[in-house]
Fold:
Amino acid sequence: MAATKIEIRRGTYYDSITLMQLQAELMQLPGISNAGVMLATDANKELLKEQGLLSAEAQECSGSDLIISIQGDNKAATETALGKVDTLLSRRRSHDEQDYLPKSLEAAVKMLPEAQWVLVSVPGNYAASVAKEGLRHGKNIFLYSDNVSLEDEVALKKDASKKGLLVMGPDCGTAIINEVGLGFANKVRRGPIGLIGASGTGLQQVTARIHQLGSGITHAIGTGGRDLSTSVGGITALQALDLLRRDSETQVMVLISKPADSKVVSRLLQRAREAGKHVVINLLGHPAMQLEKNTNLHFASSLDAAAELAVKLVNTPTTSARETAAREMSPSGQKYLRGLFSGGTLAYETLLILQDYLPNLYSNIPLKKEQALANPLVSHKHTILDLGEDEFTVGRPHPMLDNTLRLQRLAKEASDPEVAIILLDVVLGYGAHPDPASELAPALSNAISSAQKNGRNLEVIVTVVGTDEDPQDLKAQIKKFKTAGARVETSSREAALYVGQRLQSQEKATELTAVDLKVLQQPLQAINVGLASFSESLRQQGATVIHVDWRPPAGGNEKLISILERMKKS
Amino acid sequence: MAATKIEIRRGTYYDSITLMQLQAELMQLPGISNAGVMLATDANKELLKEQGLLSAEAQECSGSDLIISIQGDNKAATETALGKVDTLLSRRRSHDEQDYLPKSLEAAVKMLPEAQWVLVSVPGNYAASVAKEGLRHGKNIFLYSDNVSLEDEVALKKDASKKGLLVMGPDCGTAIINEVGLGFANKVRRGPIGLIGASGTGLQQVTARIHQLGSGITHAIGTGGRDLSTSVGGITALQALDLLRRDSETQVMVLISKPADSKVVSRLLQRAREAGKHVVINLLGHPAMQLEKNTNLHFASSLDAAAELAVKLVNTPTTSARETAAREMSPSGQKYLRGLFSGGTLAYETLLILQDYLPNLYSNIPLKKEQALANPLVSHKHTILDLGEDEFTVGRPHPMLDNTLRLQRLAKEASDPEVAIILLDVVLGYGAHPDPASELAPALSNAISSAQKNGRNLEVIVTVVGTDEDPQDLKAQIKKFKTAGARVETSSREAALYVGQRLQSQEKATELTAVDLKVLQQPLQAINVGLASFSESLRQQGATVIHVDWRPPAGGNEKLISILERMKKS
Structure:
């Protein structure tokens, strides 16, 4: 008669892979039909329950308790299987090639003081504390664990960035450092391409394809999926960009990520533009596009395309043309753009392009929530206004016809001492104002000269959209704007690119202490806290590793743990 | 002594451009320093107040009252100016070349029954009613007015689409029909390129650039900025796509828009793929990208680039290669994809690509809110699951190591009679499962054969990410999956493109009555209700137009208007 036998071991810890393997081995035993070996988390209890592997007693267990549940043909078979659990577990232990297993990170550091890395793969609720201890010992962290809070991630990375250390993760699935794969990693040839990935399988797909294409990689630095969020601000990605920039073996860089915050992306792209090396970019869901000519940035539309592009760029010279930005801005605290648009789509396109250059971009027609202007009547930092939006046009003609609103706003913006650039669009054609330059050009000329009187250098850019057959006389309009002292473009793209290049060098860089290149260039030595299989994998790849026989502190008792944590802090 | 004179004319209507011109003319009169001539909307009253042009009495006026406010050097000057108001207004009227001005749309229709278009530019709160009347008379509508409610837009467009009529707008700034510009439009050469724009100045920038590049356009159809929203569903854009597809003079199409709903975009792209002509696409903020080879769709990264690309594509043959889709799907109601991913980024990339093919796409890692799966444990229509998300991994190894969850979910999805395709990723390398195919391939083979027993043709696609040096033996893994009956890809992009092409033909098209091509091909004749300057502009371009001497119904009295509206409906 079929039987189910359930054993509970309270406060017993094995890592999840060890338990998975034990479960698989139990199911191979004679007369056994099913087995479940799991820590008693809610999710696991649900899973066991579905399979009839949960008892009332097991239902009451907590996440620090181990449930061993075995189903078989009869009572004897299940009891025999249960009797073999300890032998199977100790057989797994004997696989370790390490004579002595330190019980703490501290002890492991004493055994291998030259280790540059601590690998952390303990359950999420313990991971931040282990990582913090690793940083305290001056080690870089590979934080595989997931379910780590955002607050902990921010605190860890801020601490690390001050110390010149890296925190890859949390939830960092993949990295390759100096030919050694950490976590999940494909075996790939060494070569001239260095990668940064806020995405694990993304790094794997790209590194594997680079290898298949016959090229190879220097390093692949993982950042964890939340690194490019507003809260974290891309700390690890910025550190990694700086490391690979300085690493002489890395010729071409690849930057890939899951959906990211647009402000963080703009900061990252700014650094990438200044890297002096080709950077291939694949930011999932971010509408970044190839707009600039002669740039070292290359946007790829898929992971595969990123690999192909990177391989193609090896040994091609980099041209970092940024002449427009070379001209000095006024030193008087002028730094912001004010774009006063009559055309909604021209305003949108400008926003779309500038968001890759300027993190502090605001608008009354934001592409993303964080760009929303609190009050359309008051500009804030870099501002793009669509004056054709309903809020401005009730009871009055469209700004393409009626310049009143634009002239008022222009006067206001031009007198703001923080404003460096004024950007306007002028759309000609049927239906539009018969001679917009007659009203706008004198106002622009006034704005420029009164700024000059106040010691400021106000730059004005006008995008004129029109044809030589339009009723307004395109050439005459352009001439009036030029005479007034404005730079004239006929494409909103070109105007936006010019402004972006002009202003981005004014943006403050995030301050980070440089990470020592040794972390990439010396043979990898690591301390592993968590999954035993990671220690095995590192040894298999020829790296030096000390595995720590980690157990949840205080037997997994949450109350005791928090008391211990507080004692450590004081 | 400076004086301000304010006159109020209750229930008096002139269009906003006429008032703007009157205001400008008053300011030219001797001794006059400032003037404001505006309907007493809240925004306008605020503007007048700022300039000291508002009295207590004027403050109490409503939007149907006209305020004429004049500031001058002395009382005599302001009174003289005020005395000239009626002369100035009647002089403007005499500019009209039309002998008789009908007072209603109905009367105008009798005067010009062959008119295909009604142009509506009355204030927003009256616009829907005028447009509705135009549709009732069987006319296509150019709806320039903004401040029209979304509900009204949906109702108008649904009505029009049943009748085979177009509603361009509301807030449609620009269109060019058969060489006549409506609203704001540049004068451009006739040529082989037809445009569709959910964006006014976008159409102007692209048509102007096409002209500058020496080419020209057939028609530019505006849709209004909300046409590609979820509520409207792209009705006008779909009609326009169909019209330009059938228009033999249009060789290349260009589709541009402001930020749009992703489901609507996928429906539109599906129709565009089937158009049999080149379609250049610039969807602002939508990360649509050039992924397919040999396709008639071409993604441009800016308005300027869209124009350049369109001109380049003229006279180049279209290759609409969709062989993969040619294979018939099982006819048994199978239609959905279930993607079971271990790699988060591979899942993201798949979502990103498929959202341009499949409107009903859901995920536990949605790129957009509307794609969110209500319950990750239950798939819905086309579903992409990332099984490596925290919600699935608490207390258990990552799905790249532990296939348990994936095998369970696979069995569930494969037995769902609506499922047509199962898509998996298998990521090899250090740290991953030592032989994933040993567990997954038999399960896939089972799934395929049990579907077959139930008369279903279940298709399985496996993306294998790995290198020839990985510990798992890449070739052997691929062979096992192929033997099990799966299609194997080594790139998530290729797998997603295959699935997209396979499934998109199953998607139901929005049902629309075709619009008669005559609307584009016959010389333009129109009835204009609203801005007098639009009538002038149409005449200037050689079109036949009847201007309606429109006034707000019931003298602008809201209560009376709503009673009249109800009487019309019954």
Notes: The longest strand of chain A covers residues 190-198. Residues 145 and 494 of chain A are 45 Å apart (CA to CA). Chain A touches chain B through 96 residues (CB under 8 Å). Confidence is low (pLDDT under 50) at residues 321-327 of chain A.
